[in-house]
Write a sequence for this structure.
DNA sequence: CGTATTTGACCAGCGC
DNA sequence: GCGCTGGTCAAATACG
């Protein structure tokens, strides 16, 4: 409950529009139409220039627990706030479609393909946002050209291989970049008291 | 005392 | 092949 309140406070601090104007610094920023909710967000391609692997990565933004209610009424149900596709993200887009649509099972690891990865950015004084799941920190690393370390977390649930990375934006340390990799195979570890049905549906997709 | 976090070591992938 | 870098492991440490 304490963390939940913290999360909401962070959302209130979020700056409408221009939210992703500087990340990644050398990357093309994609735009999306206004989202019709209280928190305006943009999606961007995070084939991160600081990551020498430059992996194709699908990036999108999800509703906070607080905004799921609004989404439920505005859009007929909780869903992604925005989504962009780049030419380099074809595979990830396909994975995402599976998440959103037919919900195929067990497609992540065969053929050695990568887990779907999602990233969002929040202005926050704390690094770890409460997303309803329990995480265990397993590493921390100072990455090149940044003064803030990157933290690595794994979902504590058995058989759930979802990971997330948390780092602060070099250009603006107030901004927290959270990158999720993989899909949860379970519900959140704590109850979100209201709108449980729709929330659990969304959480089964991502976190 | 059990669990979570910290942190140095190690490993793999990539570019030169 | 070598060095650099990001990601992970695991022993040590901190914390409740």
């Amino acid at each position: 409950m304490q963390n939940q309140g913290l999360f909401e406070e962070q959302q209130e601090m979020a700056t409408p529009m221009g939210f992703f104007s500087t990340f990644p610094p050398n990357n093309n920023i994609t735009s999306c139409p206004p989202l019709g909710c209280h928190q305006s967000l943009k999606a961007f391609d995070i084939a991160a220039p600081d990551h020498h692997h430059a992996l194709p990565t699908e990036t999108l933004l999800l509703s906070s627990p607080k905004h799921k209610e609004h989404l439920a009424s505005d859009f007929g149900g909780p869903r992604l706030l925005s989504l962009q596709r780049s030419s380099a993200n074809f595979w990830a887009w396909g994975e995402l479609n599976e998440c959103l649509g037919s919900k195929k099972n067990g497609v992540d690891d065969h053929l050695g393909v990568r887990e779907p990865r999602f990233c969002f950015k929040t202005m926050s004084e704390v690094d770890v946002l409460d997303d309803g799941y329990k995480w265990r920190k397993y590493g921390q690393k100072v990455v090149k050209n940044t003064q803030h370390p990157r933290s690595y977390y794994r979902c504590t649930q058995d058989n759930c291989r979802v990971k997330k990375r948390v780092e602060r934006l070099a250009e603006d340390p107030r901004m927290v970049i959270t990158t999720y990799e993989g899909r949860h195979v379970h519900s959140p570890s704590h109850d979100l008291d209201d709108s449980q049905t729709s929330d659990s549906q969304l959480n089964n997709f991502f976190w």
